[in-house]
Amino acid sequence: MGKHVAVLTDSTASIPENMLAELEIRTVAYYIHRGQEVLRDLVTIQREEFLKWLLTARVLPTTACPGPGDYFAAFESLVDSGHDEIISIHMTSKGSGAYQAALVALSMIKEKDPAVNIEVIDSRNVSLCQGWLAIEAARAALAGFRLQDIVAKVKNLIPVTRMIQTADTLKYLYMGGRIGKAVNLVGTLLNIKPLIGMEDGEIVPLGTARGRDKAYKAIADRVEDAIGNGKAKIAYVHAGAKQEVERLRQIVEDKIEVVESMVCELSPALAVHSGPGTSGLCYYPVINSSTA
Questions:
Q1: Degrees (nearest 5) of the Cα angle 167, 47, 43?
Q2: In sequence order, what DSSP letters do the residues of 43-55 get, joined into one string?
Q3: How many Cβ atoms from other residues are within 10 Å of residue 169's Cβ?
Q4: CATH classification of the domain holding 20
Q5: Which of 150, 95, 98 is nearest to 119 (CA)?
Q6: Using alpha carbons only, what angle is made at residue 275 by residues 270 and 280, rounded to the nearest 5 degrees?
Q7: Which of 21, 53, 144, 147 has the highest local Cβ count within 10 Å?
Q8: CA gap 207, 222 in Å, rounded
Q9: CA distance linking residue 131 with residue 11, whole number of Å
Q10: How many domains does one find in the chain?
Q11: 6, 83 in Cβ contact below 8 A?
């Protein structure tokens, strides 16, 4: 029997660094192409520096998921350090090639070491929704659960883990080609804040609100409707909008019992598409907080 189950995810899960270390979550960095520069998400470019530059950018950089070789190297490193079971959790396959690249890497590592047991998971989501899956998988792994039980837990969370966010503009999503079904919100009037979410791995419109406070109230109402009288775990996410997301947190937590929360900043590879000023949340309902 090797070490506990290893948890691998993408840099775009945007999990805070202290939590990555504490829960022993390994990440694989996305690529950002800025002119002739090739940057690695949260490795050679950090959040604050990138957002300052993005505000001045006339042409958006492009992003690319890690390739099979990147995931193979990560799998190989985990196996070499004594892990014979790995769960690998990736951004929605409808928005990125990461899941497919990891599947190719899985076949490569199995040729080299048939005994290793790896499950590659399509999160059908992004950001801290993907992050919550990795966090809860890692907690279960450190508690001694085996791979099949952790996979079952993650698959149960996928359909109930939800993102809602608003932004000053959807131009970054539109310019980057990631707008999905929310394209009809692009031409919104000044001070009309679009709300977007994700359904079955694709960005969808959730309506609009006039001004940030009304947008935040609408987000809180949506979470309350989904949670009912229950409890939630919530990650408040932003791109250079910490004060704004703290306002959102206050509005939400006045209405909903939150058993765990954190404030997280999107990784640069996600901020390219959401743009500076984005704020929102990723949450899931907790049926029984003692077992979640």
A1: 140
A2: TTB-HHHHHHHHT
A3: 17
A4: 3.40.50.10440
A5: 150
A6: 75
A7: 147
A8: 11
A9: 9
A10: 2
A11: yes
Final residue of a structural domain among 158, 175, 205: 158
∠ CA(148), CA(27), CA(155), 5° rounding? 30
Half-sphere exposure of 187 (CA within 13 A, CB side): 1
Same domain as 179, residue 120: no
pLDDT range class, residue 190, cuts 50, 70, 90: low
Query: What does residue 119 show for φ and ψ, rounded to 5 degrees?
Result: -115, 125
pLDDT tens sequence across 30-82? 999 999 999 999 999 999 999 999 888 888 899 999 999 999 999 999 999 99
Query: Domain of 93?
Result: 6-30+65-158
Rounded CA separation 109/96 (Å)? 22
Joined tokens for residue 260: 């765990």
Q: Which of 115, 130, 158 is the last residue of a domain?
A: 158
Distance (Å, rounded) from C-alpha 283 to C-alpha 236? Answer: 8
Tokens of 144: 């001694």
pLDDT above 90 coverage of the chain, percent: 75
**Residue 175 sits in the same domain as residue 277:** yes
Q: Is residue 228 packed enough to be buried (19+ CB in 10 Å), middle (13-18) or exposed (0-12)?
A: exposed
- Shared domain check, 101 and 85: yes
Q: Provide CB contacts within 8 A for 226, sequence distance 6+.
A: 162, 283, 285
What per-residue confidence (pLDDT) applies to 290? Answer: 43
**Mind listing the pLDDT tens digit for each residue in 166-179?**
976 656 655 555 55
pTM of the predicted structure, to 2 decimals? 0.91
Per-residue tokens: 105: 């890497």
Say whether both 165 and 280 belong to one domain: yes
Q: Do 118 and 165 reside in the same domain of the chain?
A: no
- Residue range 213-248, pLDDT digits in tens: 999 999 999 999 999 889 999 999 999 999 999 999
